[in-house]
């Protein structure tokens, strides 16, 4: 007897899906705009969106699971595309010392600053780093993050950078969130290489990066281009090596001064250039031409009490996609809420709520090279989405802090 046609996808002539979700307005963020489908429906199969549209046009799917949201809005899962979530210790004591009037020089003399994090990260075990990162990941997940990028960069030795990257990979394998891993060995000059930054770049290019690739530990390579870190020439050597090894690049650029790192990043077709307070018009033009995303980090801007805002108006004019991220790190942005970053980006940088939301969905995905599979509610994309009992998407930006109730769906299933 001949098998029925399409036996896997049809049941009594109906198209089968694993689950059907309806009864809310779908804020799709398609093309970086709200693009709302009022009273929408989504059919999910194999962890992906099979069909999306108005409920009134929904095909008659056969499914075992139907969920009526009963109102509210649904957004794509949030994407935090720039974090340093894995590190040893924290710097809350130093934060308090500064506010109690202890000088930077005294704190540095006591081994404070990034060096204290490097020492704590080097001395921590894999398991300790994992548990501390899980603790910091929890609040981000609770508010709807379904994809997060995490960088190395506090080991600054071959052994400790590899340790950090393995912890990042393990988080991705064990936590209900998609984790992308970025090797940021060129974050700072390690104490052992003081005055010999070129020798450290040699180590990264000739020894560390090949090992990272061999073990499959990174999805991208990042560097910090700044007077207090690495020069454009040194960054370019790292970029050339990464490209030769088949890894895309990203760059911390123009945070404290203008070295045109973002133009350099664009020339190397970087996924993103991040921070960008001091980016210029030529930087914006170069980024637009290469499709490099501008990742803005209001948490660091806030904590450092910066006054120079990134040139949002130039990015708009030249059509540079803008993403937002927590930059979660122990020194300049101990931020564990992406939704708070939405508000800060609008209040401090004058982004619109629509731009801000696109920055943690549609363009957050692009900053990670995941734009074909993540970041919007569209057919064939991953079924990562969040239901909020809210009237309109601007509420996500407007409420300042706190945990809004929400239901997170990850790969088509409710994440508990
Ligand atoms: Zn950073």
TrEMBL record:
Entry EC number(s): 3.5.2.7
Positions annotated to bind Fe(3+):
82, 84, 252, 327
Residues the entry annotates as binding N-formimidoyl-L-glutamate: 154, 329, 331
Primary location: cytoplasm
Residues the record lists as binding Zn(2+): 82, 84, 252, 327
Catalytic activity annotation: 4-imidazolone-5-propanoate + H2O = N-formimidoyl-L-glutamate
Instruction: Tell me the ranges covered by the Amidohydrolase-related domain, including all copies.
Output: 73-390
Q: How is the cofactor bound?
A: Binds 1 zinc or iron ion per subunit.
What task does this protein carry out? Catalyzes the hydrolytic cleavage of the carbon-nitrogen bond in imidazolone-5-propanoate to yield N-formimidoyl-L-glutamate. It is the third step in the universal histidine degradation pathway.
NCBIfam families (UniProt xref): hutI (TIGR01224)
Concerning PANTHER family, the annotation shows: IMIDAZOLONEPROPIONASE, IMIDAZOLONEPROPIONASE-RELATED
Q: What is this protein called?
A: Imidazolonepropionase
Gene name per UniProt? hutI
């Amino acid at each position: 007897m001949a098998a029925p046609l399409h036996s896997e996808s049809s049941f009594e002539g109906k198209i089968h899906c694993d689950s059907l979700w309806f009864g809310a307005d779908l804020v799709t963020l398609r093309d970086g705009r709200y693009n709302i489908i009022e009273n929408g429906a989504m059919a999910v199969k194999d962890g992906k969106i099979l069909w999306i549209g108005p409920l009134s046009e929904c095909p008659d799917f056969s499914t075992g699971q139907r969920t009526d949201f009963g109102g509210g809005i649904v957004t794509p899962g949030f994407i935090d595309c720039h974090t340093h979530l894995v590190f040893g210790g924290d710097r809350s004591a130093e934060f308090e010392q500064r506010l109690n009037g202890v000088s930077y020089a005294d704190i540095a003399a006591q081994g404070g600053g990034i060096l204290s994090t490097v020492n704590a990260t080097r001395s921590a075990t894999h398991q300790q780093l994992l548990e501390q990162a899980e603790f910091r990941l929890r609040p981000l997940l609770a508010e709807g993050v379904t994809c997060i990028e995490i960088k190395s960069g506090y080991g600054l030795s071959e052994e400790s950078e590899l340790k950090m990257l393995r912890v990042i990979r393990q988080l991705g394998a064990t936590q209900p969130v998609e984790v992308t891993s970025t090797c940021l060995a060129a974050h700072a000059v390690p104490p052992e290489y003081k005055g010999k930054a070129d020798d450290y770049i040699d180590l990264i290019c000739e020894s560390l990066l090949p090992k990272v690739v061999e073990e499959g530990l990174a999805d991208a390579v990042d560097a910090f281009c700044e007077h207090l870190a690495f020069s454009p020439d040194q960054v370019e050597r790292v970029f050339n090596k990464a490209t030769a090894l088949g890894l895309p690049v990203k760059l911390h650029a123009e945070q404290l001064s203008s070295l045109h790192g973002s133009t350099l990043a664009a020339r190397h077709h970087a996924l993103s250039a991040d921070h960008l307070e001091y980016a210029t018009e030529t930087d914006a033009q170069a980024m637009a031409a290469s499709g490099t995303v501008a990742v803005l980090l209001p948490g660091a801007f806030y904590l450092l009490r910066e006054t120079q805002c990134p040139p949002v108006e130039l990015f708009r004019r030249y059509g540079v996609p803008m993403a937002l991220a927590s930059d979660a790190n122990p020194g300049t942005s101990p931020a564990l809420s992406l939704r708070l970053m939405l508000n800060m980006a609008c209040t401090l940088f004058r982004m619109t709520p629509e731009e801000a939301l696109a920055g943690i969905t549609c363009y957050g995905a692009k900053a990670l090279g995941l734009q074909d599979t993540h970041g919007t509610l569209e057919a064939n994309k991953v079924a990562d989405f969040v239901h909020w009992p809210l009237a309109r998407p601007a509420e996500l930006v407007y409420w300042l802090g706190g945990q809004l109730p929400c239901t997170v769906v990850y790969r088509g299933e409710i994440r508990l």
